[in-house]
Amino acid sequence: MATAARAIIIEDKKMLLMHRNKNGKQYFTLVGGRVQDGEAPQQAMVREVKEETGLDVTACRLVYLEEHAEPYNSQYIFVCEIASHGVVAIQDASEEALLNKISTNMHTPLWVDVASFSTLPFLTMNLQTIITRDLKKGFPDLPERL
Predict the structure, then answer these.
(1) Structural domain of 55
(2) pLDDT per residue as tens digits for the range 69-115
(3) Taking the mean position of all CA atoms in its chain, how far away is CA 38?
(4) Which end of the chain is more exposed for a tag (fewer CB within 10 A), N or C?
(5) Which residue from 123, 37, 142 is spatially nearest to 79, judged by alpha carbons?
């Protein structure tokens, strides 16, 4: 059973998402990925954000625990703050950079308008609905089980 950790990053009314083109199927996901052995979900999320975007997480709060189908049975989803930064880009040493070079499983981090989030082709519709709700009313203080 695998575990994943993902980040909700919002800056200037834009949300940072990963645009995926996986064998011709295009959709968006949150930035993040697999928790490695011996790694806490928060550590994994910080590492994945750095690998996939070059950004440094300065603060985060766990807002959702999502049970999910394979390959990620459990997902820890954090709302994050990030350090000042320049261009957002996949880092050369990351798994995503390798996949972008050798396969049709492409990853591109993109800032999208928060107002358009609910209309995007997002991988997990239930999560998209919950995030859309909480963009309006505020994210939970305690983790919500989805």
Answers:
(1) 2-145
(2) 676 689 999 999 999 999 999 988 888 878 878 887 889 999 999 99
(3) 21
(4) N
(5) 142
